[in-house]
Design a protein that fits this description.
alpha/beta; 8-stranded mixed β-sheet; 4-stranded mixed β-sheet; 14 strands
Length: 299
């Protein structure tokens, strides 16, 4: 009897621990960049969507910006084309762009379907809708990589309108240039630009890594929380490499442009979003500005 009672007390403890965070972020906007393995594994996909739906139901205003790189690569292979990358960016010719838009549209509507099945109203759009994302052509170290865009303007009104009508916006990272050509946008870049434009309280990146490490080879060096200047220092001193470099750069850019807190989370962990946002010591890396005090005292 005592054992089962403890189980219930533990559950109550978790709920109580979440209370100050629910109070603090009530009615606040959180942008969730959804990508990596959590998009491919159906079970993980369901967990992520449950998390975001729960955030919506406890009073947050979540927005999902999704990628689809793995799925695009799969379809590029299916039609007999070779995927090409320059500095981690997909080279996107006209044929690949057509395929990417088709795949991202499919991913977008499958996410809408999942959210709707949980009783929350969702609307899936791409950056083309209402000229949400206007882009310039992006180059990789001066190299032309085709229809890959850099976001130069976000029409935030569209997002505010959807949030006001109580919808959960789900955004595919496709944009238009001044000549109305279609461009693929790196989903991290799109999420960052959107979070800055709407002054989101939080931006969460769901990735295939646990967070930021001081030494990537040593799992004990995971950094639970760092501020923007500490992050810059780590980048300058060469601790951060590979795909984490542009990601951390994006996080710092978001912080310096008014986003209160950015989280890098391992999307392979079920319910990572809830654990990071609603518990005292999260499970990923939280990046904050240099002014606010840290959450995780005693570290």
């Amino acid at each position: 009897m005592e054992k089962s009672m403890q189980k219930y007390l533990d559950k109550a403890e978790v709920l109580i621990e979440a209370l100050p965070y629910i109070q603090r972020f009530n009615r606040k906007i959180i942008v969730v960049k959804y990508g990596g393995s959590a998009m491919v594994d159906e079970e993980l996909k369901a967990r992520v969507i449950e998390d975001v739906t729960l955030l919506k139901l406890v009073g947050f205003k979540p927005i999902i910006v999704h990628g689809g790189g793995k799925e695009i690569s799969k379809w590029v292979g299916k039609v007999g084309m070779e995927p090409h990358f320059v500095n981690g960016l997909r080279v996107t010719d006209e044929e690949t762009m057509e395929l990417a838009e088709m795949v991202l549209g499919k991913v977008n509507k499958s996410l809408v379907q999942l959210v709707e099945s949980l009783g929350v109203r969702a609307i899936g759009i791409s950056g083309k809708d209402g000229a949400l994302l206007k882009v310039d052509k992006k180059y990789a170290d001066g190299e032309d990589i085709g229809f890959v865009g850099d976001v130069k303007k976000v029409n935030a009104e569209i997002i505010y309108d959807l949030l006001e009508k109580d919808f959960l916006p789900i955004i595919a990272p496709i944009g238009l240039d001044d000549e109305f050509n279609t461009y693929n946008i790196n989903a991290d870049d799109a999420a960052c630009a959107i979070a800055k434009a709407i002054h989101a309280e939080k931006l969460a990146f769901l990735t295939d890594i646990e967070g930021v490490y001081k030494d990537p080879k040593d799992p004990d060096t995971l950094i639970s929380e760092l501020n923007a200047s500490e992050g810059k220092k780590l980048m300058e001193e060469g601790y951060i490499g590979g795909g984490m470099l542009p990601k951390l750069g994006n996080c710092i850019d978001a912080i310096e442009n008014g986003v209160s807190r950015v989280h890098i989370l391992d999307g392979r962990i079920p319910h990572c979003l809830l654990l990071e946002i609603f518990t005292n010591k999260g499970i990923g890396t939280a990046i904050k500005n240099d002014v606010d005090e840290k959450y995780y005292h005693g570290e």
